[in-house]
């Protein structure tokens, strides 16, 4: 058994207590991680090869070809990043700047607005360590960590003991789920812990809760039980340190964030509540913070000389839908699997580069593929956890593959 502890990059919880056993330079056992983490750490079943136009080649040639595609493009798209180290992300931003390219990541169609509101201090937040030590009321709103972040409840939120929560679990904490279905997390929250709302019912529920917190009778068009709403408002008012874990179920349901801002303001006038976005990919937040530092925006950017353009029209979805990009570099993402076919089909019509440890549907359509080491397992670096805390990563095993940061550096040198 290796006596060091490592970080799992299987999700944005970045658990830093992972033990491993290594024999003959190979990873044989993973301790402490959840099943999702173990599967991730054990690596790809089908590692990516270095190829140009489907023919295997050495990495040098693939890097040269990738740089040549980017140099010849007028409007390249640099997309992905949520599964890349912060070092690779920073160079990706530099490549987009150098090539007058578009740069965007997966937060563009998931947690972008939540992270943006937090970075701009429009929503009060806290760290997961604060949650463990202080939180007494937890709300899983449109999120299901029992499946998405399997160690969330045991390591940080519901079950653990903390400095001000010496008993942990239900003796010290109240866990509530607000969701459209009885998720596995709702089961853990107990008999009265689920507030089941209809699909797209989040805004009304939020507004009704805001009314209840102001002492008014809460109303919803779907006749949610007023007594239960008032009871919930009573629990929230009594919270000493409350946290909302906002999932995509909530974010996709809100047409804008004004009801959320009003709700959080009201909550914080009667108690103390924080919000943490349940980011999925391990370094989505890192990309948002790195791009924000460079440009003042968290995603959806187009460089144009010294000018930085930003807006929905520069999102990956719009850029592909309107066919405004003429080449694409995809790193640490698989848009052909995760975005609608009608939009990503265009990627097959333009020169496409993928950089990834594993074969993906996107890599099977790429003109150039460049393998990289699996970050956190075969290479180190840094990443930013879902709560904004930077975490150092170190490799568990050695590899002869380049790190994602080194691949990006090599492409940049060729530009
Ligand atoms: Fe890895 Fe996430 Fe599981 Fe923690 S909860 S071990 S970071 S997959």
UniProtKB/TrEMBL annotation:
Transmembrane segments: none annotated. It comes from the Archaea. InterPro entries: Formylmethanofuran_DH_bsu, Prok_molybdopt-oxidoreductase. GO terms for biological process: methanogenesis; respiratory electron transport chain. This is Formylmethanofuran dehydrogenase subunit B. GO terms for molecular function: formylmethanofuran dehydrogenase activity; NADH dehydrogenase activity. GO terms for cellular component: membrane. Keywords: Oxidoreductase. It comes from Methanolobus halotolerans. PANTHER family: FORMATE DEHYDROGENASE H, RESPIRATORY NITRATE REDUCTASE.
């Amino acid at each position: 058994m290796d006596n060091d502890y490592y970080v799992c990059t299987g999700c944005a919880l970045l658990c830093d207590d992972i033990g491993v056993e290594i024999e003959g330079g190979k990873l044989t056992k993973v301790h402490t991680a959840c099943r999702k983490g173990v599967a991730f750490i054990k690596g790809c079943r089908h590692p990516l090869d270095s190829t140009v136009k489907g023919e295997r080649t050495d990495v040098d040639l693939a890097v040269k070809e990738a740089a040549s595609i980017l140099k010849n493009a007028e409007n390249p798209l640099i997309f992905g990043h949520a599964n890349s180290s912060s070092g690779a992300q920073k160079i990706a931003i530099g490549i987009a700047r150098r090539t007058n390219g578009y740069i965007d990541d997966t937060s563009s169609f998931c947690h972008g607005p939540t992270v943006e509101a937090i970075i701009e201090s429009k929503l009060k937040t806290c760290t997961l360590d604060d949650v463990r030590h202080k939180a007494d009321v937890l709300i899983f709103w449109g999120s299901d960590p029992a499946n998405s972040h399997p160690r969330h409840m045991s390591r940080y939120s519901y079950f653990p003991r903390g400095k001000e929560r010496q008993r942990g679990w239900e003796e010290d904490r109240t866990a509530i789920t607000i969701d459209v279905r009885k998720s596995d997390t709702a089961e853990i929250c107990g008999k009265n812990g689920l507030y089941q709302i209809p699909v797209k019912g989040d805004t009304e529920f939020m507004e009704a809760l805001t009314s209840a917190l102001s002492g008014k009778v809460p109303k919803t068009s779907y006749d949610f039980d007023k007594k239960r709403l008032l009871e919930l408002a009573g629990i929230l008012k009594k919270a000493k340190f409350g946290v909302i874990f906002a999932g995509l179920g909530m974010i996709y349901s809100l047409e804008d964030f004004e009801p959320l801002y009003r709700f959080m303001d009201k909550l914080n006038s009667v108690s103390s509540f924080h919000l943490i976005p349940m980011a999925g990919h391990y370094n989505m937040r890192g990309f948002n913070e790195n791009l924000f530092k460079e440009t003042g925006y968290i995603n959806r950017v187009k460089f144009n000389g010294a000018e930085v353009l930003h807006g929905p029209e520069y999102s990956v979805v719009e850029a592909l839908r309107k066919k405004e990009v003429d080449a694409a570099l995809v790193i640490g993402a698989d848009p052909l699997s995760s975005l609608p076919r009608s939009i990503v089909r265009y990627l097959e019509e333009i020169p496409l580069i993928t950089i990834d440890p594993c074969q993906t549907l996107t890599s099977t359509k790429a003109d150039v593929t460049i393998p990289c080491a699996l970050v956190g397992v075969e290479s180190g670096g840094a990443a930013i956890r879902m709560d904004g805390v930077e975490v150092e990563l170190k490799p568990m095993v050695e590899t002869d593959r380049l790190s994602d940061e080194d691949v990006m550096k090599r492409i940049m040198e060729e530009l």
